[in-house]
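User:
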Amino acid sequence: MTVEEIMTELRSKGSESIKKILLNHGVKEPFFGVKVEHLKVIQKKIKKDYTLANELYATNNGDAMYLAGLIADDEKMTKKDLQQWVKQAKATTISSYTVPWVTAGSKYGFELALEWIDAKEDHVNAAGWSTLSGLVALKPDAELDLKKLKTLLDRVVKNIHKAKNREKQTMNMFVIALGIYVQSLTKDALAAATKIGVVTVDMNGTACKVPAAVEYIKKAETKNVIGKKKKILKC
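Assistant: Predicted structure:
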């Protein structure tokens, strides 16, 4: 499929009601309002395509950018590609999901995550913390810098309540991810979550709630899934 063919199909699948919902959840114009289930139909046809993914992302259309993440060949992504992607990731769905999914699957995940969490822009910070969450969910503990991750946990405790809105939300998810997916740091994550307490994030009037980190980690303990890694992040 070509970019033109895909954009035509996306336009035909757009919904004003879905678009309204997505606007409230931080998706930015331009986009058509396509359900993820329709994007996955296209994904199944294409599977992976490095070039097409970058071409779709470059359209700056929210639906096309999300699809680009689904079909991206993560291991082929260059550092330059990923820096361009995060620069364009103004929509919440793209900065907190699409870019982190692809970056975590690339050769540069940890390096770029550490760079992005120090950026001035809220959407770049969010992408950085979400990439860290993706990495701890995917990578075997032996491939993780556990000492650095524990340092980052301490940083979250110190800074989360004065962080920017999206950064605050993704910091909280990092604490949860670390507690669930890295067994040797579960106790540290629980202690950090207890110190942090309630995290307040502006959800733009939607019904979304900030997950309570302590509850999420303890629920994972009850289900006996602590330390069990994910096979894929993209959904």
